[in-house]
Structure formats: C-alpha cells, structure tokens
Amino acid sequence: MDVIYGLIPGMLVLGLAAVAVLFWATRTGQYDDLDGDGRRILMDEDAEDGDPRRAPPMDAEPDLNPVASDPTKPRRE
Prior knowledge:
2 helices
C-alpha cells in the first residue's frame, strides 16, 4: 500500500509531461504536413523541382501535353 503513494504522483508527473510534449509538438508545427513525408518517399531524388510541397508560380502556364514538351523524347512529325 505504501508503494501506491509514490506511484500516483509519478503517474501524474509522467501524464503532465506527455501533455506538455504534445502541446509543444503542435505549436512548433510537427503536425502541419502529414502527407508530405509519404509523398516525398515516392518522389525521385533527381527531381529539379526542389521542394515537392511548393506550388508552381501563379503566372506559370499549365503543361497540358507533357509528352510533347519533354525535351528528352524525339519529336514525331
């Protein structure tokens, strides 16, 4: 029975520490990009895009025909 007097405060301290770590993680942005890591695994390391989370510039024209604009493929006429 005497052990319980030490365990209860210990559990309270550990619980408060866990809650403090959770609040710290949310405030520092640990949960901002939940899908980014999963998508970055699938991305090529050689990609010239840089950051895959970054959106293209607003003035960039959309690439409607990616096969025709690929400079590595020969053009068929």
